[in-house]
Amino acid sequence: MTHYDFIIIGTGAGGGTLLHKLAPTGKKILVLERGTFLPREKQNWDAVEVFQKDRYHTDEVWHDHEGKEIHPGTGYWVGGNTKVYGAALLRLRAEDFNGVQHKDGMSPAWCVGYNDFEPYYVEAEKLYHVHGRRGDDPTEPNMSADYPFPPVSHEPRIQGLNDDLKAHGYHPFYLPLGVKLNEKDMFHSACIRCDTCDGFPCLVDAKSDSDINCTRPALQHSNVELLTEAKVTRLVTSESGREVTSVEVERKGEKLSFKGSIVVVACGAINSAALLLLSANDKHPKGLANRSDQVGRNFMKHHNGAILGVSTKPNPTQFQKTLALNDFYWGDDEFKFPMGHIQLLGKLNKDMLAADAPKFAPDFALEKMATHSVAWWLTGEDLPLPENRVVIDKQGNIELHYRDHNIDGFNRLMKKWTEILRDVDDEHVIPHSLYFRKHIPIAAVGHQCGTTRFGTDPSTSVLDEHCKAHDLDNLYVVDGGFFPSSAAVNPSLTIMANALRVGDHLIARV
Question: What is the CATH classification number for the domain harbouring 342?
């Protein structure tokens, strides 16, 4: 049996980025991915296929704590969920690392600080071609380098909104985006500023995802081997229980086993926790790395809401997702606790609206709404609760237990932004649950984090500050599971930066 120096399980924002870091070392690396390469096909940009038929989401069924079905908004591909993400790549605020008081509790401090992450944010922004501009966002943390690419420009309708918001005393800024766009030379630009980016796979490979930016380039190294359609079912440990000795895999009906000196789990916060729980043995009766009983606990996914601002003004914008606002990230004069983050969604069309509309809604009405609307995405922080957790039922299937909490700040943000849009842009604002598949909020797990949080105390955390399991000498986790708190911005860039940070640690270790 071939012995590998590293086995990496998963190729998403964490696993793919770590692979990029480790590939040049010459160490023998096996990458196991339960999915395949997402096909390039016309359906990539077909809203009916993507949003109504869920072409690129799993057909897996999970359950909640009451046994009700959950149809998770997640997909298994090389590149993981970065294949269909909106590529909004924001840093956590510096204060998010220090512990923040919310109305309903404390957001815990991280065991490392913002300054520990800052150089890796710089590295991740270069790796993922992030476009942005410093100095516009009043909550922006210290940055030792400018964004590697200029901001993605606003189209006229959005530029007008930006100017109106500024005239009213607000501080909109260019949303940091990971796209391969060259606005000075569009003829040679990979990105064509289309209206099928946010939530869609990119047919022209111009979105900066962990497949295109990390995994495929890493495969050019002869020491890297990728096995797709390889679902890891169990991690086996030594008799002492101190190290993982083999990784068990199911692939096309065949059972396989692989050995590696260091095993890295990067299946996403939910599936990584499930794998550790499913790997229970005599030495680890509650699951691997679970002496603290924290594996699967403290699951977070953010409070997320999508709203439409509908007005008499036409909106011919194609690439809409260019503006964000953090004026209420830490609250306002009336509410002294954090509220959250605001950013634009990609442009909607009638077929995307139809996924959330009554079946009797006529096409012409949906078309009219789509051409006169601006769509927004709002994010608030949900605090970690031990009872919000991943559980494995008797059949080995995933249960996701979650209840909303710390919701007041987010609700205030939704109300505040609705009032501002009416005042600034004379918009009629309506809620939209486009990103909440089947209208079940818990199914929207695109921002999943927690479940294997890191810390210095083995009794209250799963991983140490380098994301190595406290209980095992050669097991690491590098997806969003390590987050002790969720903050209120998209987690992708922090997952990527952390993977680069852990990569430096692993290079030094070997």
Answer: 3.50.50.60
Does residue 15 fall inside a structural domain? yes
Residues 6 or more apart in contact with residue 469 via CB below 8 angstroms: 288, 289, 462, 463, 475, 476, 477
Residue 51 lies in a domain: no
What domain range includes position 389?
3-37+74-509
Tens of pLDDT, residue by residue over 49-101, are 999 999 999 999 999 999 999 999 999 999 999 999 999 999 999 999 999 99
Instruction: List Cα–Cα distances, 223 to 19, 119, 122, 246, 509, in angstroms.
Output: 11, 27, 27, 19, 18
| Residue 449 and residue 489 in contact, taking contact as beta carbons nearer than 8 Å | no
Between strands 224-227 and 29-32, the pairing is parallel
Q: Report residue 182 CA to chain centroid gap.
A: 25
What is the C-alpha separation between 457 and 425, in angstroms, rounded?
50
**Whether residue 354 has pLDDT greater than 90:** no
pLDDT tens column, 33-59? 999 999 999 999 999 999 999 999 999
The DSSP line for 442-469 is: GG--TT-B-SS-B-S-TTT-SB-TTSBB
